Amino acid sequence: MNDASLFFDSWELFEPGVLAGVIVGATLGLLGVYVVLRRLVFLSAAVGQTASFGVVLALYLATLSSAWWVPSPAVGAVLVTFAGTLFVARRTRRSEVVRDGLLGGMFLLGAAGTVLLGSHLPQEMHEIEALLHGVGVSVEPSDLTLVAALGGFVLFVHALGWRAFAAVAFDPIGAQVRRVPVRVVDIALALTLALAIAAGIRALGALPVFALSILPSLAAIRLARTLPGALVLGALLGAATGFIGYFVAFLFDLPVGASQTAVAILVALLVELGRAVVGLARGREG
Amino acid sequence: MSAARIPGGAVAETPATLIAGRRLAIGWGDRAILPPLDFAIREGELWGLVGRNGSGKSTLMKTLLGSASPLGGTIDMRPGLRIGYVPQRSEWEAAVPARVIDIAAGGLDSGWATFLPFRPRGSKGKVEAALAVADAADLATRRYATLSEGQKQRVWLARALVSDPELLVLDEPTSALDTAAERAVFELLGRVLAQRRIAILIASHQLGLLFERATHLFYIEREAGVAAIGPRAEVLAHPIVRERNLLELASPRAAGGLTDGAAATGSESIQGGRS
Q1: Domain coverage including residue B226
Q2: CATH number, domain at A163?
Q3: How many domains does the structure of chain B reveal?
Q4: Site from A94, A177, A179 to mutate, B interface, most B CB atoms within 10 angstroms
Q5: CA distance B80 to chain A (A)
Q6: Span B162-186, mean pLDDT?
Q7: Inter-chain contact B92–A170, Cβ cutoff 8 Å?
Q8: What is the pLDDT of residue A28?
Q9: Distance from B88 to chain A by nearest Cα, in Å?
Q10: In chain A, which residue's Cα lies nearest the Cα of B115?
């Protein structure tokens, strides 16, 4: 086990990775409230694969042409992720069968497309893997800048428009009747999810992004009494999970992504345990 | 309201039309599922939209609410018409953390103003007033998930009333309620109708109380291509409706005509028939 003080003494070394984890955790912790409550928990797994496909597609297009319209890998990930998220989100309001089928199809298309196109790229597969999933421990300053800009933008949009997102997410026909711009809100939710997941996967990897987009939000929903409360709490728990996961990885020489995932699981379990204990105590009082 | 001169020189007030359909065709893709519909919903009227499951009620309701496009004909709405909508219970995810007051306040969130994080000043008073009208004031701080089905329905009614609607639309409002709770909802709606000059449209496949309380009815059957629309007594006298023995499901009060003081105004033509 490493000395905890060494972590803070060497803060400059760890700062980009820690900050990336905190920002991605806060962003996904907030957005995850919508993901969980709309029962789209496998969305981020499917979207993660789609983002990978977007990266590989951009690299593949670059081998064919150097034209201006060929996107960079990061932009390719965002574009393909946005299209996939929007497609699924707009078709999953009613039928759980349709939703699960689409998410499964999206996951498989992303996974198969990544392998198929990846095999035709000049880069080595480990280079592509690093590009797809980042390395977690040492986040590049440019990636941190990207994560901070996108995370700040997403949090700002959702802090401003939480009433619109809530209305469209949970009462879509009522929102339409009250002339809320449902289509704009749907697109905004899909775009912000795509940005957050694509940037998160680039900085942290697919596994922690999947965990951070579900578990802190689930815990927040179980604790909060109001939706704004759940959104704020989800962001705080996500940020804490990102930080603690990194710190635990340093202490015990663990892979960062897996450590952040384990901490997210622990947070969700502790909240469930706490609720059970409180429920039992109230039962005895009653 | 608009004034109309009647024989003898007196001026009678005709309830204003809030929403009207002319040769309205509804359906999916490009396939109409019912004959063209003509109707006009006016202030003070309580309309029942009845038919079996799968009869086209939801499609008609979505078309009226603007979430599905008409395949033909027109829907004319009074400019700026305020609509309050009570969704089917199953459409709301019960796990959403919310207090009763939060659910009711959501009914104020309209238009592009929802992109501002705070509601305008005075919203709290409106929400409290709507909760009081819906007999839900004492539930204000309760968690929504802990309420009974009847209480939840009252909360949704408050959410619909908070924007001071001129037309109140309810989709299967009593499907999860027992008879006593169903009667309470209809009594509440009757009070709202009496206190405010609004119109109410209720979609339901439970006919008893709706046949008793409605002033007007849509009776639709997709499979038979039938749409009978108009004042309750006329719709209940329609050959197809009589053939279906629907009156057996209604109370004697409904079968006996309009007796509850909510007089039918105007007369829509009985339409449809087998297509």
Answers
A1: 13-81+199-275
A2: 1.10.3470.10
A3: 1
A4: A177
A5: 11
A6: 86
A7: yes
A8: 96
A9: 10
A10: A161
Tell me the one-letter amino acid at B121.
Answer: R
Total structural domains in chain A? 1
Distance (Å) from the C-alpha of residue B107 to the closest C-alpha of chain A?
8
**Partner-chain contact A227 B109, CB within 8 Å:** no
Give residue A155's domain range: 4-279
User: Rounded to a whole number, what is the distance in Å from the CA of B261 to chain A's nearest CA?
Assistant: 30
**CB-CB under 8 Å, B117 with A160:** yes
Rounded CA separation B148/B161 (Å): 20
CB-CB under 8 Å, B106 with A167:
yes
Q: Which two tokens stand for residue B121?
A: 């000043």
The pair of structure tokens assigned to A129 is 């893997």
Q: For position B274, which CATH number holds?
A: 3.40.50.300
> Would the pTM count as exceeding 0.80?
yes
More reliable by pLDDT, A139 or B155: B155
Edge-to-edge strand list for the sheet holding B17-25? B37-42, B17-25, B72-77
Question: Does residue B264 form part of some domain?
Answer: yes
In the numeric block, which tokens belong to residue B143? 């968690």
Q: Which of B66, B83, B99 sits opposite A225 (nearest CB)?
A: B99
Enumerate the residues of chain B whose CB falls inside 8 A of the CB of residue A227: 96-98, 102
Token representation of residue B26: 């509804």
Q: Do A221 and B66 touch (CB under 8 A)?
A: no
What pLDDT does residue B5 have? 47
Give the total residue count for chain A.
286
- Alpha helices (H) in chain A, listed in sequence order: 4-9, 11-37, 43-64, 73-90, 96-118, 125-133, 141-160, 162-170, 172-177, 182-203, 206-212, 215-223, 227-252, 256-285
User: Which tokens belong to A21?
Assistant: 């984890």
Q: Which helix (H) or strand (E) holds A202?
A: helix A182-203
E strand or H helix that includes residue B131 = helix B123-133
Residue B156, helix vs strand vs coil = helix
Residues of chain A with pLDDT under 70: 89-95, 124-138, 286
Residue A77 domain-assigned (yes or no)? yes
